[in-house]
Every structure is written in structure tokens, then in C-alpha cells.
Design brief:
The structure holds two protein chains of two kinds. By secondary structure, chain A is mainly alpha-helical. Chain A has helices spanning 5-25, 31-36, 43-54, 57-70, 72-99, 104-108, 115-147, 153-201, 206-213, 237-251, 256-259, 268-300, 311-320, 325-335, 347-396, 403-427, 433-446, 448-457, 463-482, 485-488, 500-517, 521-536; strands at 216-218, 221-223, 306-310, 337-342. A two-stranded antiparallel sheet of chain A has the order 1-2. Chain A has a two-stranded antiparallel ribbon with strand order 3-4. In chain B, strands 1-2 form a two-stranded antiparallel ribbon. In chain B, helix 1 packs antiparallel against helix 3 (43-85). Classes of the chains: A mainly alpha, B mainly alpha.
Chain lengths: 542, 86
């Protein structure tokens, strides 16, 4: 029996990353090493790692799938995600590096003293990372379902979860960073290969691809995928688009697992360089999603993207659905399998199969696994540092914690968080992963982003403002999602799928209102110190 | 710090308006945005691609301007250090 190419490729990735983890373990035995890799990651390395953290399975599988099924509207996510980096570049990257130590809360609490600010920042960090993490794990389940029928999705989620814990628990930030770098390289290689093959299919003429994309059959109706309005439609489409745009553009500025990456570099200049690399890599990748998505729509066809069954299973399925027997039999006769449930998360791997056969599909699937693994590792590390550094070290023990206890708490928190995320992911299936990530962005944009941006730029900003802003942002974004059409369907109390247009301004307004009600002269004085430190690095962590 | 602000504030306002113009125009004039502009490519898609270009251009401009901020920051840091020593 020849070995399965998917198993071989994924095994190779595992072997390399586990060796790195072993090498990194010796350098992660202090809390500084565990959280920030001793601040010795270079700007370029960190840029690749940020790109790795950002180009998640949700982007790769989710955006490609949304473009394949809905065309332009899916690409809007990609636009929001690249533009978002300008906020990070202009306002956050360099000051974060100079002001913070291990966590996002360090930066907010630098001038806004008080336990409430730190507790809330840590809490919103945990909520955001958990939402984001579930999206990744659901993605893992859905591709495994298709690719290796022997393994069911529950086993896959547990497998991904346990491997990720090995990286984080043993190798800390250094191993996690290198896993991200390797994975970013692999993902770009896979996307470039698919993009070039799609163009080759159309005689290297983008015009021919776009032309074909104007007549894609969706549900039997010819559809122009280059036109907007296939995903966001109905009376509230305009507001929904605006809401999504706001959440995407500001959400990155509140994503803790991206922001903590700035603590791993030696200088503000390196923080800036890393954003430069990240924007170049991420932009290239997102441009490629258009070619992959439209390629999947034109070459594979949305009707053929989904869970496949073959052999006796297919025959049994057809027998159970006599009303569609004719069409299903025709499909079975032609392809040797039938598609039972359309699932747009599978667009990228199925495009790879159509263009390069089982070997390319195995490569793309292995890359998708590696992606999920790397991103959940980064998320878990961020959640662990928020819990152990902010909640345990600063709030419960008030800074009086021996080194080995800190590390023990950080590792236990990673383990607990990992197990919780695995359990939640098992509960939530078949939700488009890009949609889930969109929600994480909405919460991030409404809570962490206002607090961070105002703390770094507004002299009068006070603790009361930070607390009221974060509470308003967190409650309104979570509550509006809970009553949105995606959760309550036709009984929805709130008409939009994305809460951003309400919850983001609410987060900012509440922050301003809280500040105006309760002035904080200490915070205003410390703003000078913050500005000097943020801009010059004087007094910053070495 | 003022030099930095002089770059960052106008640049932020520009990209915020330019980015929000995309969903705004989709909401207000969906018919226009759906029209083919460059070959089969719709105006909406062309606008979306343009967002990538402007993001990269702003990135390059900022990287160049920031070299100047670095020099100033280093000078301040050195001055503070010598004052602390003397």
C-alpha cells in the first residue's frame, strides 16, 4: 500500500516543527522567554509570523469559499483586513512595543491604573481569542471531514488541539513564532501555486478568468460574481456592509494575538519593519484569494463544492432521496461520487484537486492543517498570558509571584483554555468560518480597539472612560450578535448580521462619556511619560 | 512627536475616508458599482483592488517618513542619557 500523500506531507511539517519546539524549550524556561521569546525576534521574522497569525484557515478556506459562492462580497473581507493594518502601523505598532511588557492590558494599564481596567482588558482578550479559536477549530473539522474519511471531525479537532498544546506548553513564544513563519511560507506557496494554475487554465489571461466569472451557475441561475450584492442583500444590505467594513478595519487594532507579537521584537523600528513585511505578505495573499475563489467558482463550480460520498454510501443516499434520483444518478455516473451538502469552506482544496490532482490537494490540505495548528497555538499563548500575567500575577497575587509559579500558571491556563476551545468547537459545526471570525473582529473593534487607541493618543482619557467604553462595547457587540439574524433567524430583534455599526461607536462614545464624567489627573500626568516612552523607547522593557 | 503627528493624522483621515467610501458607494449606488469598468471587471472590484494599492503606497510613505522620526527619537534619548549622567 502506498502511503497517503496527505499523511506524508503533514507528517513532515510535524517533524520539523516538533524539532523546533524541542530546541525552543530550553529558551522558554523563564516567563520572559515563554511570553516574548526574550524580545529577540527580528523585524522580518516577526513580519512573517504576523502574516502567519493573520492568514488563518478562516481566510484561506473561508474567504476563498465566500468568493467562490458569492463573488465580490467575499472579497470585501479581504479588503477590510489589509486596510486594517494601516491603523496598526500608524497608531499601535511602535508604541505597543515600547510601552507593553507581555499583554495588551499592560499597555492600557500603563497610565490607567486600577484593577478594573486590567481585569476588563484581560476579559475581552479572552472572549476575542476564544471566538477566534472556535472559528479555526471548526475549519479544521470541516476539511478533515472531506479529506480523510477514516478520521471523523471530532478526532481531528482533538488531534489539532493536543498538537497545538505541545507547541505552546513546551516551546512557548519562540516555538510558536517559528511555527507561524514556516506556515506562512507554506501558505503563500500554496496560494501562489493555485493562483498561477488558475491563470494558466485561462491561458494566463486574467480577462478570460473575469469573463468566465460573469457567468457562473449558482443554483441553476447564471450569476455575475464580479457584481456586489450576492451575500449582502435585502433591505439592510447597505448598513450591513458599512457595519462589516468598520468591524474589519478596526478589529485588527484590537486583536490580542496580533498585538502581542509586537512584544517579541527588540526595538520600535523592528516593530515597524514587521508591519511592513506583514502588509506586503498579507496583501499578496488576499489578492490571490480572488483568483482562487473565482477559479473554484469557474473551474469546479459551486454545485460541486461540498461533502462528497461515493460507492455504496452514495447509492444508499440516492435511494433515500427518490425525488432527486435522476439528477443524483447522472452526477454519480459522471463523477463517481455525489455532493450531498454544499460547503464553501472546501473550495480551496477542491480547486487544488481539479487543477493538480490528488497530490496538490494533499499539499493544500496539509497546509490548511498546518495553518489551523499554528494559529490556534498563537491564540492559546495569548489567552494564557492574559490569564496568568493579568489576572493571576497582577490582580490576584498583586505582583508577588515566584518565577516558577508564573510559568506553572501560564501553562495550566493554556491547557485549560485549549480544552475549553476544543469542547466548544465540537458543539458548533457547519458555520462559515469567515463569519465566525467576523464576529471576533466585531468584539475586538468595540472593546480593545477603543481602549488601546484612546489610551495611546488622548491625554484626558481616564480609567472610568476605559471601563465604561469596554463594558459598553463588549455587552453591545455580544448582545447584538445574540439577537442577530444569524442566531435568531426570522425572529431576529436586530436586523444586521454584524453589530459593528452600533457597537463600535457605542464603545468609543461610552469611553469619551466616562472620561468626561470622571477626570483623572494622575492619568493625564502619566500621559507625558507614556508619550516619551512610546516615541523614544526610554524606559521600555529590554 | 509633532512631526509624527503631522504625518499620521492626515494619512489616517485619508485612508479612513477612502476605505469607508467603498461600502458607502456599494450601499448608495449599487447599480453603478455593478457596472463593468475595465473589461468585464466591475467598478466595485476595481475600487477594491485600488484599496490594496493605496494601502501599500501609504505603507511605503510612512516607512520613509519614519526614518526621520527615528533620528529625532535617538537624539532625544541620547540627550536624556547624557543629562542623567551629568
Amino acid at each position: 500500500m502506498t502511503p497517503d500523500p496527505l499523511v506524508v506531507m503533514f507528517g513532515l511539517f510535524l517533524a520539523v516543527t516538533l524539532v523546533i519546539t524541542y530546541w525552543a524549550s530550553a529558551r522558554s524556561s523563564s516567563s520572559r522567554g515563554f511570553y516574548t521569546a526574550h524580545r529577540e525576534i527580528s523585524g522580518m521574522q516577526n513580519g512573517w509570523a504576523i502574516a502567519g497569525d493573520y492568514m488563518s484557515a478562516a481566510s484561506f478556506l473561508g474567504i476563498t469559499g465566500l468568493i467562490a459562492f458569492f463573488g465580490f462580497d467575499g472579497f470585501l473581507y479581504a479588503v477590510g483586513w489589509i486596510v486594517a493594518y494601516l491603523t496598526v502601523l500608524f497608531v499601535l505598532a511602535e508604541p505597543m512595543r515600547n510601552v507593553g511588557r507581555y499583554t495588551v492590558a499592560d499597555v492600557v494599564a500603563f497610565r490607567l491604573r486600577g484593577r478594573g481596567v486590567r481585569a476588563l482588558t484581560a476579559a475581552s482578550t479572552l472572549v476575542i481569542t476564544l471566538l477566534y479559536m472556535v472559528a479555526q477549530m471548526v475549519g479544521a473539522g470541516s476539511i478533515v471531514n472531506l479529506l480523510i474519511q477514516r478520521i471523523d471531525d471530532i478526532v481531528a479537532i482533538v488531534l489539532v488541539g493536543s498538537l497545538m498544546l505541545v507547541y505552546v506548553l513546551i516551546g512557548g513564544m519562540l516555538a510558536t513564532t517559528w511555527v507561524q513563519i514556516i506556515k506562512a511560507g507554506l501558505l503563500l506557496a500554496a496560494s501562489l501555486t493555485l493562483g498561477v494554475l488558475v491563470l494558466a487554465h485561462f491561458g494566463y489571461s486574467p480577462g478570460a478568468l473575469f469573463d468566465a466569472a460573469t457567468r457562473v451557475h449558482i443554483g441553476g441561475i447564471p450569476t455575475n460574481l464580479l457584481q456586489p450584492g450576492h451575500f449582502f442583500k435585502g433591505p439592510h444590505a447597505g448598513l450591513d456592509l458599512f457595519s462589516l467594513g468598520l468591524a474589519l478595519a478596526l478589529g485588527t487594532a484590537g486583536l490580542p494575538h496580533i498585538l502581542t507579537r509586537f512584544f517579541t521584537v527588540p526595538s520600535a523600528r523592528a516593530a515597524r519593519t514587521s508591519v511592513g513585511w506583514a502588509m506586503a505578505l498579507i496583501g499578496t495573499f488576499y489578492l490571490l484569494t480572488t483568483f482562487m475563489g473565482l477559479g473554484a467558482a469557474t473551474i469546479v463550480g459551486p454545485a460541486h463544492i461540498g461533502k462528497r460520498i461515493d460507492g455504496t454510501q452514495a447509492i444508499r443516499y440516492i435511494a433515500r432521496h427518490p425525488e432527486r434520483a435522476q439528477a443524483l444518478n447522472a452526477e454519480f455516473g459522471k463523477d463517481g461520487f455525489i455532493v450531498t451538502h454544499q460547503n464553501n469552506n472546501l473550495a480551496a482544496p477542491l480547486l487544488a484537486e481539479a487543477l493538480g490532482g490528488p497530490l496538490l490537494m494533499a499539499f493544500v490540505a496539509a497546509v490548511a492543517f498546518a495553518t489551523i495548528l499554528a494559529v490556534v497555538a498563537g491564540l492559546t499563548l495569548t489567552a494564557a498570558s492574559a490569564f496568568s500575567h493579568d489576572i493571576w500575577y497582577s490582580l490576584i497575587r498583586r505582583g508577588d509571584v515566584p518565577e516558577n509559579e508564573q510559568l506553572f500558571v501560564a501553562r495550566s491556563a493554556a491547557l485549560l483554555f485549549g480544552v475549553l476551545a476544543i469542547a466548544l468547537s465540537m458543539l458548533l459545526h457547519r458555520v462559515n468560518v469567515a463569519f465566525l471570525v467576523g464576529l471576533a473582529f466585531a468584539v475586538a473593534a468595540s472593546t480593545n480597539a477603543p481602549a488601546l487607541i484612546l489610551a495611546l493618543t488622548w491625554r484626558r482619557f481616564s480609567s472610568a472612560g476605559a471601563i465604561s467604553g469596554m463594558i459598553a462595547g463588549l455587552i453591545s457587540s455580544v448582545a447584538l450578535i445574540a439577537v442577530s439574524p444569524d442566531v435568531m433567524h426570522e425572529h431576529a430583534l436586530f436586523p444586521l448580521r454584524n453589530p459593528g455599526i452600533v457597537s463600535i461607536p457605542l464603545g468609543f462614545l461610552a469611553a469619551v462619556a466616562g472620561t468626561l464624567v470622571a477626570r483623572d489627573h494622575d492619568s493625564e500626568n502619566r500621559f507625558n511619560e507614556l508619550e516619551v516612552r512610546a516615541n523614544t523607547g526610554i524606559g521600555a522593557e529590554r | 512627536m509633532t512631526a509624527r503627528r503631522r504625518f499620521v493624522i492626515p494619512a489616517s483621515i485619508f485612508f479612513a475616508l477612502f476605505f469607508l467610501a467603498l461600502p458607502a458607494s456599494l450601499a448608495l449606488a449599487p447599480g453603478v458599482m455593478a457596472r463593468a469598468a475595465i473589461g468585464p471587471l466591475t467598478l466595485a472590484y476595481a475600487f477594491a483592488f485600488a484599496q490594496f494599492v493605496t494601502s501599500w503606497v501609504l505603507l511605503a510613505l510612512y516607512m520613509r517618513a519614519a526614518r526621520g522620526f527615528d533620528v529625532r527619537a535617538r537624539r532625544i534619548a541620547e540627550r536624556v542619557q547624557t543629562e542623567a549622567v551629568s
